[in-house]
Structure formats: structure tokens, C-alpha cells
Amino acid sequence: MSPKPIIAPSILASDFGKLASECQRIIGHGADWLHIDIMDGHFVPNITIGAPVVTCIRPAIEKTADGKGIFDCHMMVAKPEQWISDFAKAGGDLYCFHYEATENPRECIKLVHDSGMKAGIAIKPDTPADVLYSILDDTSDPDYYPDMVLVMTVEPGFGGQKFQQRCMPKVTALRDRYPEMDIEVDGGLGPSTIDVAAEAGANVIVAGTAVFGAPDPKHVISILKETVQKNVELWKTRSKV
Ligand SMILES: O=C(CO)[C@@H](O)[C@H](O)COP(=O)(O)O
Ligand SMILES: [Fe+2]
């Protein structure tokens, strides 16, 4: 099955003073998932929120059969194993940890799956894509297989940074090698950068500033989604060449 376009606004760019209603507002504008950036001040030089806040916003957002309302937790934390159970209890759906933050990414994927969440694995701009190949090539046990790969397009830690196009060859390599994988990009995405990211092969698009800062978030979300949709067929032709 072809990957479908998924738009996941980063709530880091929302007004935290009215977080639950901001989440509802952006879902109402057509967002699919909510991207929740968790920073611990160790893995990245910034601190955001933890599981208690996720617990508070969970009841405000309905999950639908067509996959809307998923909480995509981007764990920019050291030792990601330690927070799995808290986020599962808080209502996280997808627990995306950093490859660089753990000594055993395969075991971490298994622990996330055991908790009932889906597992994502993220790489920073300077981490090559091929570190993931041994994990992604081994389809022998679904418990150890990630549900999504996240290619960071900025250095993790802050919203509002400039998109780094140099990360796109990694997205292309991953898309050509894994045509059905959900590939997420995160950092500096918006109407001016979506073309290159979608052409490279990203289907899950995180956008914070570009969505929450827009006068018409619905319009921005539809541009992002349509641009991914236009490229899905192109990836198929390219991987056959
Ligand atoms: O994980 C991160 C930053 O570390 C991101 O999710 C950003 O928060 C996205 O924000 P914009 O670059 O879209 O403003
Ligand atoms: Fe993020």
C-alpha cells in the first residue's frame, strides 16, 4: 500500500496557555496528527513538557477510525526507554525516539510495542540514513520493526528554524529502499519547503510555525497535503528505475 499524506502540526508553536483548545482548533482545520515535542534538557538544550500535560490534552482530542487525532510524541530525550510507560498511560499513540539516544534501538522498539504504542525512530541531520538499514531490512519479527522513520530537517531542540535541504538525499534513499514506510520530516516545513521534501519521499509532514503562525492554517494544511499526494506516484516510478 502506498503511504498516505499525513499532516502533523507541531504544538510547540501553539499558545501553551490554551493548549487543549489550540489542539482542537488545528484538528478542526484538517490536521491529521498532533506532533508533540518532548525535550528533556539533556538530549537537547531545551525543556518542554512531559506526560502529565499529554494526559490533560488527551480527552480533548478524539481519535477517529481514519487515523485522525493520533498523538505523535517526538521524544528528544536521553534514555528514551525510561518514559515509555508514562507516555503509553498518558495516551500517546506513536512514540518516536532518537537513534542517537539509545544503546539498543531494536530493543527500544520492542518495549514501545509492548506498551501498546507504535514506534518511530528519528535521526538528526548529521546521522546518516544507513545506520537504520540493518533495523529496516530485518522484517523477521514485527515486534522489532519500526512503524515510522523521522528524518530531522533541523537540529532538534527548537521550533522556528530554517529547513536544511542537505537532509533530503537521506529521505530519497529511504523512500527508494522502503516504498511503503511512513517517512516523517520535521523542522522548517511549510509551503515554501514542502516541494523538495515531498519530492524526496516524505509523507508525514510536521509543521509548527508554518501552520500555527498562519492567518489561514486550513489553507496551509491543504497545500502540504496536496503536495505530498502529487508526489506519491512519482516515488513509485523512481524506485523502479
Ligand atoms: O522537533 C522539533 C524541533 O526540535 C520540531 O517538531 C519543531 O518544533 C518544528 O517546528 P517548525 O520548524 O515547524 O516551526
Ligand atoms: Fe519534532
UniProtKB/TrEMBL annotation:
Keyword Cell membrane (UniProt): no
Pathway: Carbohydrate degradation; pentose phosphate pathway; D-xylulose 5-phosphate from D-ribulose 5-phosphate (non-oxidative stage): step 1/1
Catalytic function, reaction form: D-ribulose 5-phosphate = D-xylulose 5-phosphate
Residues annotated as catalytic: D37, D186
One Pfam family from the record: Ribul_P_3_epim
Cofactor(s) demanded: Co(2+); Mn(2+); a divalent metal cation; Fe(2+)
Binding site for a divalent metal cation: H35, D37, H74, D186
PROSITE patterns: RIBUL_P_3_EPIMER_1, RIBUL_P_3_EPIMER_2
A GO molecular-function annotation: metal ion binding
Enzyme class: isomerase
Alphabetical keyword list: Carbohydrate metabolism, Cobalt, Isomerase, Manganese, Metal-binding, Zinc
Gene3D superfamilies listed in its UniProt record: Aldolase class I
Cofactor binding: number and manner: Binds 1 divalent metal cation per subunit.
Residues given in the record as substrate binding sites: S10, H74, G157, F158, G159, G160, G188, G208, T209
GO biological-process terms attached to the record: carbohydrate metabolic process; pentose-phosphate shunt
EC number, as in UniProt: 5.1.3.1
Record InterPro entries: Aldolase_TIM, Ribul_P_3_epim, Ribul_P_3_epim-like, RibuloseP-bd_barrel
Family the entry assigns: Belongs to the ribulose-phosphate 3-epimerase family.
Protein name in UniProt: Ribulose-phosphate 3-epimerase
Source organism of this protein record: Arthrobotrys conoides
